[in-house]
Amino acid sequence: MQEPVFSYVPGESFLHKLDPRTKLAAVMLLGILAFRAESFLEIGTLFTFFIALASFSRLPLKVFFRAVRPMALFIIFIFLAQFFFTEGQELASFWVLRPTLEGLYNGIRISARFILLLLFAALMTASTDPSAITCGIERMLRPLPLRWLGVNSYELATMMNLSIAFLPLLFDRVERTKAAQASRGMYFGKNPLRSVPALTIPLIRGVVRDAEELSLAMESRGYQGTCRTSIHELLMRKRDRLSLLVMGLFAIIMLVL
């Protein structure tokens, strides 16, 4: 069975040994830099930095292809929308579609941003145990006055971790639903719009059922949202401080470009 997207891949690389708080802070910073990237030089620098991080992680390339593939249609749609409907210097004319040079630039730039976000997120989730991510988020949120909002860091970290955990399960359920409908004789290529209800309705029912089963399992095990313990002892080591320093220097370089 194919592994779901954004799943953890055990390893002993440099990235696997980093504190989850270091990787969370790095991904947030890289996400901000990706959204601020305007020129092709900045985007190319971010892709080069990702390649360097991927080499340190020793993760197989299929992990990153698997993260981008489910969003490929969405990325293509964004590119085409920018390419054909952005005003500027026209490259050609196809009925109501008028591709422009500015649309080509914007489409490549925005698509590259989304791809970078997916790649950096896949790099973090593949090199970090989900329970360590939960512990890292809780430690980072603990100093915030979340009690004024009626929640605490433990509950918020659990919700974030469940969201991360449900994402690969959602893609896996989509594939299983498609296979089940295909076995019943449905052909998705003939009329894609007609097949949407056949996918969405069983998918929503399955997701709701999974959420109910998870909530019952947590209640039966006496889940409490306060003062939870963790098997992970988080400790910022020399490699973590060095990594944060490198990230800070890289961010300064990106802001200067």
TrEMBL record:
This protein's record includes keyword ATP-binding: no
Classification via PANTHER family: PROTEIN ABCI12, CHLOROPLASTIC (PTHR33514)
Protein name: Transmembrane component BioN of energizing module of biotin ECF transporter
CDD domains: EcfT
Domain of life: Archaea
Record-annotated membrane-spanning stretches: 24-57, 63-85, 114-133, 240-256
GO cellular component: plasma membrane
Pfam families (alphabetical): CbiQ (PF02361)
Keywords in alphabetical order: Membrane, Transmembrane, Transmembrane helix
Recorded topology in the membrane: Multi-pass membrane protein
UniProt subcellular location: Membrane
